[in-house]
Amino acid sequence: MNDLQLLWRSFRAENRIFWRTPIGAFFTLGLPLVMLVLFVSLFGNDPIGTEYGEITTAQFYAAGLGVFVAASATYTNISIGLSMRRDEGILKRVRGTPIPPWVFLGGVILSAVWIAIFATTVMVGLGIVAYGVEFEAAKVPAMLVSFLAGTICFATLGMALASVAKSAASAPAIANATILPMGFISNVFIPLDDPPQWLTLAGDIFPLKPFAVAFTEAMSPFSEAPAFEWDRILVLLAWTVIGVVVAWRKFRWEPVVGASTGRRSRRST
Amino acid sequence: MSPAIEVTDLTKRYGDVHAVDGVSFSVEPGEVFAILGPNGAGKSTTVEILEGHRKRDGGSVSVLGIDPAKGGRGFRNRVGIVLQSAGIDKELSVREVLDLYATAYTHRRPVDEVLDAVELTEKADARVRSLSGGQQRRVDLALGLIGDPELIFLDEPTTGFDPAARRRSWDLVRNLAASGKTVVLTTHYLEEAEQLADRVAIMSGGRIVAEGTPESLRANADGGTVIRFALPSVGAPLSELFDPLVGDASGRDRRIEIVTPAPTADLAHITTWAVSHGIELQGLLVESTNLEDVYLQLVGDESPEASA
């Protein structure tokens, strides 16, 4: 059988599973959309002081939350989904069939990236249609490149987290305990205008702020085309490498049964 | 024809525990081979090594001429695996799951045909989540068949089934055997092994303690008779009762079982002893051995709780 056909089927199955789990779809997309509407209603849509200059509330949040939904569609959903399915023995079943590991995991990642594309498009689209959010055709390549770099980065980090999480119970806790605090220091939930230096540094090191800054700058009316933020994209690439290395070395297909079984971890190949 | 499975001196340790401790057997193509034993006997570990799910520590294993530890996709294309605890994505329908997995195999069977074989045609478009436990188990079975494998591993395929569903599954396994498939099944139901298997290996404590056709296992025990009774608490030393016996005594919770080639003499001794101590032996029973006795005798000898 053609592997690409298998990849396509696996991708479609993953999409179905996502849309048939309404609670996951709500937290991934519904809640952030509500946040956009809420923030613009609460704070008004006048220009506010941000790192990017004086931009409207909607301009800030449509891009920032657009990045956040992409990160949670990949990082949170992949890590929780894979560790849950490992605990249920679904990954073990796949391992006993001729489905190549890269096809299965490729389907998971492609589906998450696809959902991220959808979610970010809806978020940014709502901003444009409802709140006059601006973007320029000349800077669309920068939007796409920063979006893909960030989404792929968070997808590999989701794989890495699924690899180190011991069970389906610990994965959501770790995912939320990492991405939510990151959200507050990364120009996603709150516009940072001259924060303390250590917070700036923390934000710059972790991947969410580079993602948010690169994407928001590509949409900001003050940035000059082509508006590529290469230093930020480089940070995302570095985190992608870390994600790949951890996932490659630690990914397991079988549930962890206690700690004393001495079961060795398996590679993803 | 070369054997479908050839296992020699297989060992597997988890820490200090010898889960599989020097197991050898072979399975011919088209044979139904049952591995029977209590929980923790090493059945599942053995089968998981044959499936390629687990690495062995020692010995050699050849499945369809391939070492499963190294067999990649080509190997998995030729075997069907029905695991004890492999999940299914519950948001997909039965047909969607079968379609998805079928795509991976080169010799896949038509989905409708497989649905029919496991009697799930009516549930084809139902989400897996909405199925009962037994129906989900049949999806498991369907996934094991979808690639039209030469060799099928069934790890306790009917655990949790009601008696009617169990019998229907047995028919399914018989049909597989009739179509020339090799079947390896593990079970702790003796009746299942007796009903389905051409040959049975009884495992206990990581070793094979008996192997043969159900008939030959029974024949080996032939001439043996079992004497069963419950022993009340007695002041008299039990050595007086047990030492002179010709047969082997074993017991648990004061229920005594004696397998003996000399039932007349042993029974006479037991009843004489009981009468002389004024003891009534509850549930005294004498019968010729069946496969269950062979099994319990073998497994009981090896299992730690019987050594007390």
Q: How do the strands and helices of this protein lay out in sequence?
A:
The complex is a heterodimer of chains A (269) and B (308).
Chain A: H1 3-19, H2 22-43, E1 47-50, E2 53-56, H3 57-87, H4 90-95, H5 101-131, H6 140-164, H7 170-184, H8 197-205, H9 208-219, H10 230-250
Antiparallel strand pairs in A: 1-2
Chain B: E1 5-14, E2 17-27, E3 32-36, H1 43-51, E4 58-63, H2 73-76, E5 79-82, H3 94-102, H4 111-117, H5 133-145, E6 151-155, H6 163-178, E7 182-187, H7 190-196, E8 199-204, E9 207-212, H8 214-220, E10 225-230, H9 239-242, E11 248-252, E12 255-260, H10 263-276, E13 282-288, H11 291-302
Parallel strand pairs in B: 3-7, 3-8, 5-6, 6-7
Antiparallel strand pairs in B: 1-2, 1-4, 8-9, 10-12, 10-13, 11-12
General description of the model:
The complex is a heterodimer of chains A (269) and B (308). By secondary structure, chain A is mainly α. Helix content of chain A is 70%, strand content 3%. The two termini of chain A are 19 Å apart. Residues 259-269 of chain A have low confidence and may be disordered. Chain B contains eleven helices and 13 strands. A six-stranded mixed β-sheet of chain B has the order 5-6-7-3-8-9, sandwiched between helices. In chain B, strands 11-12-10-13 form a four-stranded antiparallel β-sheet, sandwiched between helices. Chain B is elongated, with a radius of gyration of 23 Å. Residues 302-308 of chain B have low confidence and may be disordered. The A-B interface holds A 1, 5-6, 9-10, 13, 16-17, 20-21, 85, 88-90, 92-93, 95-100, 254, 260-264 and B 14-15, 51-53, 55, 73-74, 76-77, 79, 81, 83, 85-89, 91-92, 96, 99-101, 103-106, 127, 143, 147.
